[in-house]
Design brief:
By secondary structure, chain A is α+β, with helices and mostly antiparallel strands. Chain A is 30% helix and 25% strand. Chain A folds into 2 domains: 64 residues, Arc Repressor Mutant, subunit A (Orthogonal Bundle); 43 residues, Dna Ligase, domain 1 (2-Layer Sandwich). The structure holds a DNA duplex.
Amino acid sequence: MAEKTTIKRSRQRDAIVAFLKTRKDHPTADVVYQEIRTIIPNISLGTVYRNLAQLSERGDILRLPCDGKMDHFDADIRPHYHFICNRCGCVKDMELPYANNMDELAGNTFDGIITKHNLLFEGYCKECM
Amino acid sequence: MAEKTTIKRSRQRDAIVAFLKTRKDHPTADVVYQEIRTIIPNISLGTVYRNLAQLSERGDILRLPCDGKMDHFDADIRPHYHFICNRCGCVKDMELPYANNMDELAGNTFDGIITKHNLLFEGYCKECM
DNA sequence: TTAAAATTGATAATAATTACTATTTTCAAT
DNA sequence: ATTGAAAATAGTAATTATTATCAATTTTAA
């Protein structure tokens, strides 16, 4: 039952995490791939996808769904909201306080269990205005 | 400049809108396709995608992005929030009041223009609990 | 009725992501 | 340090959802 699975470190995964920590712009999988390739030239794109998925499932990074566009990834795991520019596609942090009680509040009027919420703002960033 | 484009009605598009209006569960494009096929057997999947895109761009229906899963479509165009079940994937309406001032509020702490926001709740529906 | 433009069905193409598999790497127990 | 089982990888193939293409059909204003 309890699928015990030992996690072993890898140079590739360490590099992905280290790279994400240097960036504030929440790169996509393909950007991570291109950048890591400058360090580990023969890393596979599948490896990048696999590790981004594993890391976000473990809670070591955040996966940011962006309304149909490609997911972005964030090494800052503190819950916070994001903005996506409809022109250039950049993703930025919002300074709004995170609504910790939002799920509980929403649950009061919902027949089921609410485990989380995702709030994404859209518009145009200052560079695109 | 102003791309004036006359819209002509079509049996296929009328059928898609009519179908969506009979449903409260916000179907995906492929569900729309399967259902419309019982009325118009040789309708093309491309036609369904094309019309769902056109209709949502015109504001006649809502496109609901669902955190990486397939988009769902809603004939009820009054702004409201949604929930997606992480087990069965169903999408349901939330009864929460829509925050009309959210974009303006968020704009106060953001250097750019915010045109809209998308709030999606996740968890388990009552059938899946 | 007619003709220009929108729409369609059928199919091909694309883009993003996942699956597969033989090989390599990691690491706990010797 | 050595070993061996499990995890991870590179490279590639396959899949999935969606969009593009285009000749033929349909719509609608004049």
